[in-house]
Amino acid sequence: MDVSKLVYMANQIGAFFGSEAETSAAADRVADHIRRFWEPRMRKAILEWVDQCNGEGLQPLVLQALQKHRQKLQPAG
Amino acid sequence: MYSVKELDTGTPMRVSTRLVTLEIDGQSVTVPEGTSVMAAASTMGVKVPKLCATDMLEAFGSCRLCLVEIEGRKGYPASCTTLVEPAMKVSTQTSRLARLRRGVMELYISDHPLDCLTCPANGNCELQEMAGVVGLREVRYGYDGANHLDADTDASNPYFSFDPSKCIVCSRCVRACDEIQGTFALTVDGRGFASVIMPGPTGNFLESECVSCGACVQACPTATLMEKSIAEAGQPEHAVITTCAYCGVGCSFRAEMQGTQVVRMVPDKNGQANHGHSCVKGRFAWGYATHPDRITRPMIRTRISDPWREVSWDEALAHTASEFKRIQARYGRGAIGGITSSRCTNEETYLVQKLVRAAFGNNNVDTCARVCHSPTGYGLKQTLGESAGTQDFDSVQDADVVMVIGANPTDGHPVFASQLKRRLREGAKLIVVDPRDIDLARLPHVQADYLLQLRPGSNVAVINALAHTIVSEGLWNEAFVQSRCDLAEFEKWKQFILLPENAPEAMAAVTGVPAHILRGAARLYATGGNAAIYYGLGVTEHSQGSTMVMGIANLAMLTGNIGRRGVGVNPLRGQNNVQGSCDMGSFPHELPGYRHISDVATRSLFESVWNVQLEPEPGLRIPNMLDAALDGSFMGLFVQGEDIAQSDPDTQHVTAALLAMECLVVQDLFLNETAKFAHVFLPGCSFLEKDGTFTNAERRISRVRKVMPPLSGMQEWEVTTALSAALGYPMQYTHPSQIMDEIARLTPTFTGVSYEKLEKLGSIQWPCNDAAPEGTPIMHVEQFVRGKGLFMVTRYIATEERSTRQYPLLLTTGRILSQYNVGAQTRRTANVVWHDEDRLEIHPHDAEQRGINHGDWVGIRSRAGETVMRAVLSERIQPGVVYTTFHHPFSGANVITTDNSDWATNCPEYKVTAVQVSRVTQPSEWQRRFTQFDHQQQDLLAQRERVGTKT
Ligand code: SF4
Ligand code: SF4
Ligand code: SF4
Ligand code: FES
Fold first, then answer.
1. Model confidence, pTM
2. ipTM higher than 0.90?
3. Which of A36, A40, A65 lies closest to A50 in space, CA to CA?
4. Which of B415, B421, B686, B826 to mutate to test the pocket of ligand 3 (most atoms within 8 A of CB)?
């Protein structure tokens, strides 16, 4: 998958939920959205991006969401 | 006029709880107050002779044929204009009346050509019928006096002719155009004997304001206004009720037939979405169904540079199944997927998603709603709890204020627009939010009270500023919010919306809308009585599409404008079955009825009925499929009735992805743009060739009925079951009604739906279940589907697609009345006389700066690509913004649109693309390549090896 596009999309999601006053709750909602709508290979690709390139380009909130909810987001198998 | 079999009560039937009993021809009859004597008589089977009256129109009282005698009254009142009164005693047939009526008819006939036997209306002409009814035997005036018999016929409209020599000046046509359609294209010119019907100042229909809706033709009692199809084929011998397959209004039609040939489509006056009205597309543009371009045999080829080879259905499906299995074996189970069509029936889309989930074994299914209303589904589900509009169309009759956002109903949803225009003429107020000065804002007799001509991409800023005004000025409905909404979330939202950054004054620089206009609109919406919002793709097709839908729901909840007639949040759905395709589980994350695939209980339910284990993970959405194809992990796609190579954004990206696939299967009527990249072509059926149901924008499920056999020999649902069987997952149905029964069994909002009930009720608005056995016209009445209404914080975030030095203009897109989306159907009808190419609308100021004149060829360049079309100078568009339609593939409107999309749903941002425009002299590089490829593919089609000609 084109990671730059995934980064862009993840940041867009982060921007919407970023209006939440509380960052931790916002991170939960970002992760939940990605979990509910992203197909496993997209989630896998973005998590690899976090691992291999420190999630370069990701907004801090999104990076936090991906790290905090890694297990939930990691596709089975 | 109506076809012979329909009852015409003469004047509209009234609805009232107060009843009136009277006597007609010695028999007692009870009717609602306000009913005419003529209509009351018709309920007893008494037909009073009439010419100027028809039940689609208010009574006019000009022909004097419907005279009756009423005990105690002097003279002979006209029964069409006389209302019933208690204890009235009416006689409709006396010798005096007969004499008078004969006299009236004699006058009419003395100025009418007597060519009945060769007239296209023969056998279905009210004048002829009335001459018979009144017993006309002679015309004493002779035919030598002044007359209109030499008047020329106007055949300029492609679908109907106007022969003034046959006109009786009953003005039914004029009134139909005014009262029903609301276009006011016709006038009665002159007085008395000299009066004639005039379409516009030139007297020519094609050059007039006429939008070819056909209402006047339907209203005309003679052959003066006559469908050309009837003039050619003769009168129909039977009729079948079905549903239009174009837009989300979902008009009900009588397909009038001679055997299996359609001779006319007439809007059904019992149709609950359209009440007997139609637009040019449904009424006239059905010729594509038998167009010579139709491909009716399955075809396969190995490479897209090979000629096609016609094969049997068995071979085509076996080949498809083996290719899909090969791809899955090589690249994994998730390497194939399917796209369902919003043009197809509920049963067909349900089956395709079932095919993907059960036979492909993944959830890679999506639908064209991805690119139009997916944000509606998401946004309304979050806030209100259900992914659908809240009202029926008729609800607009109780609206006092109507706000239309990012929708152009007179072009996109014409029959609803006619209903809306009627309400506006009655005095409802109108707020239009649109970058263009659309027709609705300037109607005959109606002007928008507020036109918020915003900059493309600033919707959320506008909706926030409206909400800010309402809250800060204390105009919100506290009682409603207190009792119906989640208060903790409301408080959070309230704090947000009151931030100074959301004030109209602060937002004016972004939106381009002066603060005082915005405040005025907010006050009107909040305090003007019942306020309803109607919106279209100008809301959804943005990077903040979902945010905007939530903003709209917030506004409706804030003012208590939800849960009763006259109010609500109403998405105007694009395609005929876009609501249905979403309901049927076409999205990769949802099973039918909008239930998430990860929900164990729902999944188990489907698993037990489908007898298969389902994948719990969401699948790929269309843009993700394309990305995955370029990435090498998605290699096979089944596309039913959609043309992503033309309709989806960033064409060059789409076609690169299609080229990367190893097996692309397209099912369609024609070799559409996507099919030119396909390896397997499966012929599809037009709506006239199949049974099923469509669900319109008001959640109304209506029957589609087969009126002719499928040209390909198989309906789509049969093809899907056969493909599924070839893949090793047989499905057992013998009729689409059984598919609906399964949907009803598995979907809580559909449990009460069946073909039997549809037969009985005509149509059903879901939810239809034990709680609402006859359906639900209005939702969220007592409480929201999700319980408490949820206010969502909707911060305005500017799209990254903004004007720059390199691309200083913003391109936005839309549709036109006569063409439909990618135009595959309408381009193959005479509708091309109104729109034979897409053009670029540009403000004269921007044009002048670039040395562009009206009609010049201009290049439109964005970061995605470049195309060329002709310029139209127009002040309807604001400086800095340009506009085009996307109905013709050669225009390449989507070569320019980018891959930006809605944050929540990936719905593309068609409505904002930064571009530069300049004068050019030749087509773009893309257009040259397109033409070459198109010629190659047309040649390969023409060279196809036919079944039966193989050696
Ligand atoms: S076709 Fe429709 S718009 Fe045209 S004149 Fe007749 S009623 Fe009016
Ligand atoms: S064109 Fe037809 S409807 Fe119109 S005035 Fe003449 S006869 Fe009546
Ligand atoms: S308004 Fe829509 S559904 Fe009705 S006839 Fe026109 S295209 Fe068909
Ligand atoms: S039908 Fe009543 S006056 Fe013409």
1. 0.94
2. yes
3. A65
4. B415
